[in-house]
Design brief:
- The chain is 26% helix and 0% strand.
- It is an all-alpha fold.
- The radius of gyration is 17 Å and the shape is globular.
- The protein has one domain.
Length: 134
């Protein structure tokens, strides 16, 4: 499911209702590594059966971002620019996570996880210049 909500609601920037985005710079991406939460596991159970993916072997970890649709957190601070939960935005996020796990499941292969520390320059726009310098 692709949400068009980014043209309607605020984003998780600075919890400011006046800050709105128009258009799309890039789509959010999710990548699933199967190192084998409630709604995601329920949907995976419908797809693969109830014993394969559980609370004990699914970890969902998110990096900090200010570029996702607002209204998905279920708390006032996270949803302040929309003033409420927005089901369409939440559905798009949950569906994206489920789809990334399904893709990973269909492409299982041996791999390694390596850890590095460093800086990636010019990788993303994380701050709105018009908001910062207004």
């Amino acid at each position: 499911m692709r949400s068009r909500a980014f043209t309607i609601v605020g984003f998780m920037r600075y919890a400011t209702p006046q800050q709105r985005d128009h258009g799309l710079l890039q789509r959010m991406r999710s990548r699933a590594f199967i190192i084998v939460k409630t709604e995601v596991i329920d949907r995976l159970n419908k797809k693969f059966g109830s014993k394969l993916y559980t609370d004990k072997n699914v970890l969902i970890s998110g990096i900090h971002t200010h570029s996702t649709p607002d209204g998905t957190g279920g708390t006032l601070l996270v949803d302040i620019s929309t003033f409420d939960f927005v089901r369409e935005n939440w559905e798009a996020c949950v569906d994206g996570i489920v789809q990334s796990i399904i893709r990973a499941h269909k492409n299982l292969q041996l791999g390694r996880i390596q850890i590095n520390v460093g800086q990636v320059d010019n990788a993303n726009i994380n701050r709105s210049p018009s908001f910062l310098f207004a």
